[in-house]
Amino acid sequence: DPSIPPSGVSCSGCGAELQCCDSEAPGFMPAEKYRSLSDGPSGVKGLRNAVCQRCWLLCHHGQALGLRLPPEQHRLVVSAALRRPLRHGYGPLLLYILDLLELPDPVLPQLQGLMSPDVPAAGLLVVGNKVDLLPADAPGHLGRLRERLTAACTQAGLREFPLVDVRLVSAKTGFGLEGLISRLQRSWKCAGDVYLLGATNSGKSTLFNSLLHSDYCKSRAPDVVNRATVSPWPGTTLNLLKFPIINPTCDRIFRRQERLKEEAKKTEDQLSSEERKYLNHLKKQGYLVGRVGRTFQRQKSSTVVEFDPDMLSYSVDEEPRHSPKKREESEEFTYNEVKDARWCFDTPGIIKENCVVRFILQVLNLLTEKEVKLVLPTHAIIPRTFTLKPGMTLFLAALGRVDYLKGEKPAWFTIVASNLLPVHITSLSNADAVYEKHAGQELLKVPMGGEERMKEFPPLIPQDITLKGIGTTEAVADIKLSSAGWVAVTADKEEELLLRAYVPKGTTLVVREPPLLPYISAIRGARIAGNAAYRTKRPPSLVENLKTIGRR
């Protein structure tokens, strides 16, 4: 209905302004639904806690509606937020969320361009997310990952930002979150606002939701602030979302530490059946699991039962009459609760723009909704190792290809990618024919849709790579096939390999040295007879902050 102006009320899922006048613009809600919520005595306030049509379809049907949105819109929203005048005498703390699977992160070096010289950031805390998806390739793997993350910050040249800390977490399974909250409350306290920043699909909104139900927010915040919409589709959050940060007084810090100590004494057997069931669910999804609790929970008043005398006085022949339900009033913060509040903001994902950093977005834009769900890993990645001789080719779906052109000995190629993506091994002489015949079909799976789908999909473009092995137990490099995953290459010491890797045209291939998980080829079973593949092996999951029986 173009006659109804925008509401001025934000969608509680993505932050866009709710409106019913343009179905292709952010925040659209069907006019009938819009009027039913806004025509009451509260007016447009009745739209509070409502979500737009796009968020509804993402949450309930996994469908992503296309939006008419300028490509630079996300960056403008973030930059405008970071250039606001100082509040409480402090610049913002930047909590940068980085997807570990996408190292080196292409957006991190661009942070300085988002800030204003007049509003300097008070600090930068870098959070490596999705650590639960990566298996422990050897003892000390978390320390090595943290070193890689710290090195990425150094290479990004962020000298203008005081680096507060570098943390490894899983926003999804809760691993590392209690430690992150303690670090924030100990070092940052409640000095100023906090902004969750990062590239699209780095997990900002998932972290926002986890912090919303933790000791980091005011106790009443989960009753007032809705959870952000989370989906595998890039660019879900369109504007700012926020919750008020709790003031970590000495008493609150003490009570929180006491709770954490008590929980660390428990074994898994001492948890309730519901807690064990939830932990087992998380263990199936990730290698590293954490338990995020709440010390400061609001005491809810008991439910008041309202009696209608007329409802109790109907005869046997009459049907009971149901009083019309009153619409539940949404809770709001009082003035005193938020007048001096510091806020934690979720922000839109920063989209990679220039030719060097645009590859992740472009690959996902080439894919359909079903294909994106297959490509982006949501469960613990099980590495798949193959031994290839010169003259053999490896396909990762139809999104990437590695040819072993020249070498003296076989080498090991370990795939770290979504478990749903197929790997196909063939001879170099047959590789072109295999791609021509099976791209778009079941064998290579993604893209899907047959010849018609492949007509619109860009061709694979080659890049030659020369590597020198450092030993049969340690990978020399990762060949990152854009956002589809990577291949860790392990070869005999001093063995020279000539490889040719392919990714779709318009995307970027990265050779990552040193590799992210250098000992990944060790996570394998026995060699399958008459096959280039080894049997897969899934390392056990670990739950932090739980006492393990039999260990000290």
TrEMBL record:
One of its GO terms (molecular function) is GTP binding. The keyword Coiled coil applies. Residues 250-277 form a coiled coil. Residues 194-244 form the G domain. SUPFAM superfamilies: P-loop containing nucleoside triphosphate hydrolases. Residues 413-513 form the NOA1/YqeH-like C-terminal domain. Keywords: Coiled coil. It holds the Pfam family MMR_HSR1. It comes from the Eukaryota. This is NOA1 protein. The gene is Noa1.
